[in-house]
Design goal:
Number of strands: 7
Strand content: 15-25%
Largest sheet: 7 strands, mixed
Strand order of the largest sheet: 3-2-1-4-5-7-6
Distance between the termini: 30 Å
Length: 207
């Protein structure tokens, strides 16, 4: 008995800049999505597409305040396979460093802040058991995206993909992403760009 995700009507704000969801067609590369569990860093209109494609969706959102998260909660209330949590930058101990990263165009990064007690990774691991996660979508607003791609490869998540890979190299830290022998790379170049790292003993997206 395969669990088929509940397909709900997707609602998109007419004023939404479509570039924020230009990663959605790249999901086609992933086989058997309806059997997989995904963790999304960030959340929004695009989360609806994840809910319609995957067995279970977890969203870990962080921002200055929870206004966007509450809007997204309302948007996703009909999906039973979605679970989300919100923490402010301040609660994660990242507020000052995020401002420093912005002002220095990606310099002054303090990756160690992600590991502090009660911080980003501790709260993330309290929210979800990474052993149960098949895929991670890195799209959070904390600017520390490159660092978190490495973190999930070190955790042996089978597929990690991230949005905006054609832009913001310094701000998002794309140049910090390391080479792991057990991972291969596949790039979807449309729009802002979406890049996948996948476990090459299980998948081959470059056929």
């Amino acid at each position: 008995n395969k669990l088929i995700p509940m397909k709900e009507q997707i609602k998109i704000d007419n004023n939404l800049d479509k570039k924020f969801i230009d990663w959605v067609p790249s999901l086609d590369i992933i086989p058997n999505k309806e059997q997989l569990t995904i963790l999304e860093l960030g959340c929004g209109y695009g989360t609806q597409f994840l809910c319609n494609n995957f067995k279970k969706v977890y969203s870990f959102e962080s921002s200055k305040d929870d206004k966007w998260f509450k809007q997204t909660q309302e948007l996703l209330k009909f999906w039973t396979n979605w679970e989300g949590v919100f923490y402010s930058y301040h609660e994660l101990g990242l507020d000052k460093n995020i401002e420093e990263i912005k002002k220095s165009n990606g310099g002054k990064r303090k990756e160690e802040l992600l590991f502090i007690k009660g911080g980003f990774y501790e709260k993330l691991n309290h929210f979800v058991d990474l052993e149960k996660i098949d895929i991670v979508f890195v799209d959070q607003s904390t600017k520390t995206r490159g660092e978190t791609v490495n973190y999930f490869m070190e955790k042996n998540i089978n597929i990690i993909f991230y949005h905006d890979s054609n832009v913001g190299h310094k701000i998002y830290g794309w140049d910090l992403i390391k080479d792991f022998k057990n991972y291969s790379k596949w790039v979807y170049n449309q729009g802002l760009g979406t890049t996948f790292y996948y476990n090459n003993s299980i998948y081959n997206f470059n056929q």
